[in-house]
Amino acid sequence: MRAYSSAIPLLLATMLAGCYVSDAPFVAVEDADYPIETGTRFGVFRPSGDDWQAQPGRVIERVGGYYIYVEEPDQKRSTPFLLKRIAENRYVVQMNDTADFARVSEVYYQLIDFDGTTAIQYSSTCPAWTNWVERELISHLEVAAAETRCHFSSFDNLVTVLEEAAVNAAPEAKFVLVPDG
Asked: Are 158 and 26 a contacting pair, CB within 8 Å?
């Protein structure tokens, strides 16, 4: 089962810029899904033209009710994150803006798909389509020169937007399970 569920951790390399945002977490620790075993290692790849360029690998660890990843070889640790399954082979990643839980001011989200050995992370850029605003899926927009940040007050609305955006989104990263041994 480890080979099937461990490919998910594509999560978060670019999450710090978080364009899908909420002020408070939507997923509680007790409602999260934990399909990744501690010690799972995976290769990381970013798009480069028509190919994929290898990045430093990562190892998943579980710290309390949260996951973190440790980037190899420098041992850089991610901020805590959770996974919530929303459909077969599809998860929402929820990540704090800081590792200090007393100082969390925003929570970021991304969408990932995986087939058991390869996971695809979709772009974290929120395109802020007009119909999302008209349909009141986005609670408010924050528009800046560098990015548009879509804020949400409902997990269901967030899921709708992430899934609709993924239809036209380019993959942002690919994570491939590294078998034991």
From this structure: yes
